[in-house]
Structures are given as C-alpha cells and as structure tokens.
Design a protein that fits this description.
Number of domains: 3
Largest sheet: 7 strands, mixed
Number of helices: 11
Order of helices and strands: HHHHHHEEEEEEEHEEHHHH
Radius of gyration: 20 Å
CATH class of the largest domain: Mainly Alpha
Number of strands: 9
Shape: globular
CATH architecture of the largest domain: Up-down Bundle
Length: 358
C-alpha cells in the first residue's frame, strides 16, 4: 500500500486548500457563526463551481470519475479549516450513486445538480440517511421498502441525517437495499455540537428509486465512515497546527511553552493521535477505491475519530484559559470533532463492531 498521493490527488489537495484559503478565512467563519445560516452559501457555491463536489461523479455524467481516496483528500482539507459546508454528505451521496446507481440515474442527478449550480441555488446538496433510533450504527436497517406498481415506497425513521432539511435528495438504507429519494420526506431538526444542520427524517410511504439491493447497505455505510474519518483527520491536523503555533509563541517564566518537557510530551501525544487516524483513513480509503475488504480498517478509523476528539482536550488544556474561549478558533475544531464522533455513534459502538469483525 502506497500512502503517497499521486499527481492528480496532490493537485486536488492544492486546489481545495487554495480555494479554502480565500473562502474560509477566520473572518468569514466568524461571520457565518453569527449569521445563524445552515452553511456558508458563498463557500458552497465556490466549491461547486470549482467542481470539487463532482470529483466522484462518473465521467459519463459530467464528473471527474474519481473515488474514495480523492473524496478523502477534499474532506481532509475542509476539516483542517472546519469549513461550514455540506460537502461530506454530498460527496458521499455522489460516490454511492456512482457505485450503485444506473447510468440513467447518475446522469439525471448530475443534470439536476448542474442546473441548480447555474442558478446558484443551494438545492444541489445531497445527503445520506443511515442510522435509526435505538439501533447500533452497523445494525441492519429496519426501514421498510415495499414495491408499489413500477416503483417503491419507503416507511421508517432515520436519525442524525446531515442537512436532512436542506438536501435536494437523500440516499436511504432500507431492508431491501439502498434507495434514492428526491422528495416527500418530513425532516425534524436535531441539535448538533458544531451547529451544523442535522435532522430526523420520517418516511411514510415515500416514493423512492432503488439503486441496489441489501448487499450495498454495508458499502454505503463504509463510504460514509471513510468520509467522516477523513474530515476528522483534517480537524485534528488543524487543531494540532494551531496548538503547536501557540506553544511556540506563548511564553511563561521567560520561556516558550514548547520548551517545557511536560508540554512537549502532551503535544507529542496529539501528534501520535493524528498520525494513527491518518494511517487508518488512507488505508480504508485505498481499500475502498480498489474494491478490497475495508470494513476492519474503517472500523479502526472510526474508533480513532473518537480518540481524536479526546486529543482535542489536550489541545484545549495546552491553551490554558484561552482554550475555553468560544470566540477562539480552537473551539471550532473541538465542536467539529465532537460532531463527527456523534455521527459515527461513539467509541463504544466502534469497539462492538471491531469485536464482531475480528
């Protein structure tokens, strides 16, 4: 396994990083947090117009035809800025459509998204609905799919759906497979640690198109896990960079904090957590991209997302009282790490899954 990025992936990383340097400045992030809007629409439009949200769309549908590693590259850069955009859910949905949808379904969805971008509309947001109330993240879905004439209808309830109220379409896991829903669901807002929109999605004989059978349910969950872990990897890297700069410049007793042994040991622990998550992310993404068994590696990555959240406590501690200031950038990373941990169900759920797999 080669953990180095190839030329295309490096260019993609540079494009994403350069765009975010212009569109996700500290001033823009602060203004967004005060606005109360679900996401920064200017940032989202810039991401779409740069075609970063179509990197996983097949070439025959107008996209770049790339895969899970490239998805991870983009999301890691977004995480490093804690950028407020529905990129994670949208990229997961486009990669799943590329894998499981028919050519006609892919082209129809890509044509709709292209038209929406031309109108600078927010309706190009996509999402996925995986988890159900009281169920482990990896449990088989109870949402019922029933044939209705030439189509299907879905009945059930999904929780923790990213941008469930804002999305133009949602991919839903059900007992009969993975389905595409383009309208007719009811969304009830949920609270998220970082303020991003979440929703409980209620399906009541909601019309749907079937993308694939039950064998695709695990595949969609794995793509989602890889995406969350990649973004968490960026969040932790951003927090590590911020904390490293702080301890280099903050002086106490006439010495930089970085010169104290206790401080260097703690920042080293954060670095180790960052590298452990990175290795698991790239391993899982590479296996997915090459159609190899990835569930064990991704379960480990999901566990390290929870460990990354714990590492943020160390970053907070090293900042002293400043680490508790909600107007300081570290709070943004802390909130994002907590949110991403919740999306995957927490460390205990990942321990259970790892135990079942091994």
């Amino acid at each position: 396994m080669d953990f180095n990025l190839d030329e295309t992936q490096q260019d993609l990383r540079t494009l994403t990083s350069d765009l975010l340097a212009k569109e996700a400045t500290p001033e823009r992030l602060e203004a967004h947090e005060k606005s109360g809007r679900p996401y920064d629409e200017r940032l989202w439009q810039a991401l779409c117009q740069a075609e970063l949200m179509s990197v996983c769309v097949p070439e025959d549908a107008g996209g770049a035809g790339l895969g899970s590693v490239e998805l991870a590259v983009v999301l890691r850069e977004l995480g490093a800025r804690a950028a407020p955009a529905p990129a994670l859910a949208t990229l997961v949905s486009t990669l799943a459509l590329a894998r499981y949808g028919t050519p006609a379904q892919r082209r129809r969805r890509a044509d709709a998204a292209s038209s929406e971008r031309e109108r600078l509309s927010a309706d190009s947001v996509g999402t996925v609905a995986l988890r159900e109330p009281g169920r482990a993240p990896a449990a088989p879905p109870l949402t019922a799919a029933e044939q209705d004439g030439d189509g299907w209808v879905l009945t059930g309830r999904k929780v923790g759906v990213p941008y469930g109220s804002e999305a133009a379409y949602v991919l839903v896991t059900a007992d009969e497979g993975v389905f595409l829903v383009t309208g007719g669901w009811t969304a009830h807002p949920e609270f998220a640690a970082n303020g991003e929109p979440l929703a409980t999605v209620v399906l009541d004989r909601t019309p749907a198109e079937r993308l694939a059978g039950p064998e695709a349910v695990s595949g969609l969950r794995q793509i989602f896990t890889a995406a969350v872990a990649a973004q968490a990897s960026g969040v932790l890297a951003g927090a590590l960079k911020l904390t490293t700069e702080y301890i280099k410049n903050r002086k106490q007793f006439g010495r930089a904090l970085a010169e104290f042994q206790a401080v260097t040991v703690q920042i080293a622990d954060v670095y180790i957590a960052t590298r452990a998550l990175d290795v698991a992310v790239w391993s899982g993404a590479w296996l997915l991209a090459n159609d190899l068994p990835a569930e064990e590696d991704l379960a480990v990555a999901a566990f390290h997302v929870s460990e990354a959240y714990k590492a943020l406590y160390t970053c907070q501690h090293l900042h002293g009282g400043l680490g508790l200031d909600v107007t300081y950038p570290l709070h943004r990373y802390f909130a994002h790490a907590k949110h991403l941990t919740h999306l995957l169900g927490g460390a205990d759920a990942q321990f259970d899954l790892i135990g079942a797999l091994v």
